[in-house]
Design a protein that fits this description.
This protein is an alpha/beta fold. A 7-stranded mixed sheet has the order 3-2-1-4-5-7-6. α7 packs across α8. The protein starts with a helix and ends with a strand.
């Protein structure tokens, strides 16, 4: 990174980091409760999550005739229960915000028992995505869905990850579907892995998991996510500008494959 850009990035990080997270250890359960506080305090961030949750609703409607539970893995600070009241919220850490503790790569659910698995910003944190996909294949019943909302490999995503020096990183050249978790599940997360698995290596995925069929991959979220400041920074615009930010995203919706920062990946077990 050029020296000028690096200096600007450091200044931005120093002055715009949200006070609640300046000394936060993101590998602890405290991170989840602090992040929930941020979500409730930042209207644009909460609106962004609501937009993401709306991406999950088609799978809910289309599997309405199926029995079994709808499970969110890695619920963290989310509030999906406000949108889908019957969802079972789980995380690898026990907090007051979840119903169960589950490891996505070693689920306790029985074979062919689940209606839907939701992951919102979780897949790229998993140590071994292939092991998780085996568990999804095992636990979902035929017709069940796996719906994931994950980072996209777009120019804005790559650039911001580099400039903001986030605790996650972006490497789309990796040869495996694994994270190096020595530093922890948060700080070792490769944001590029969902794109690697479902777009770059799609043929490999289809051969390994013939029963897991990709129904749709959609692209979205630019200004709403970026201007919210996410879980690290204060919002870059005041909350009253939310309608304008949403309108800007709507105007760019035809071009989100190129400028969007997020993917929704909808998979059906057949």
């Amino acid at each position: 990174m050029p020296k000028t850009a690096s200096a600007i990035a450091k200044m931005l990080k120093r002055f715009w980091t949200h006070p609640l997270v300046r000394s936060l250890d993101v590998e602890t359960a405290d991170r989840i409760l602090v992040h929930r506080e941020l979500v409730e305090a930042k209207p644009i961030l909460k609106a962004n999550l609501r937009k993401w949750y709306a991406q999950l609703l088609p799978a809910v409607r289309e599997t309405a005739s199926l029995p079994g539970r709808m499970v969110e893995l890695g619920s963290g600070a989310g509030f999906l229960e406000e949108i889908i009241p019957d969802v079972v919220k789980t995380d690898v850490l026990k907090t007051p915000l979840v119903h169960e503790v589950q490891n996505a790569c070693s689920l306790t659910y029985s074979d062919n028992s689940l209606r839907i698995l939701f992951l919102v910003g979780v897949l790229h944190h998993l140590e071994n995505i292939e092991e998780f996909l085996k568990e999804a294949d095992r636990t979902l019943q035929p017709g069940g869905r796996l719906v994931m909302i994950e980072p996209h490999n777009s120019f804005p995503q790559r650039t911001l990850c580099r400039i903001l020096d986030h605790y996650e990183y972006f490497d789309d050249t990796v040869g495996s579907w694994r994270n190096k978790t020595e530093a922890g599940i948060m700080t070792s997360a490769n944001l590029a892995l969902p794109w690697v698995v479902f777009i770059r290596d799609r043929n490999v995925f289809e051969k390994k998991f013939p029963r897991l069929v990709i129904r749709k991959i959609s692209y979205h979220s630019l200004f709403l996510l970026l201007l919210s400041g996410g879980m690290s920074y204060r919002s870059f615009v005041p909350g009253f500008m939310l309608p304008l930010v949403q309108f800007a995203d709507w105007l760019l919706s035809p071009f989100m494959k190129y400028v969007g920062t997020v993917l929704t990946i909808d998979v059906e077990k057949q």
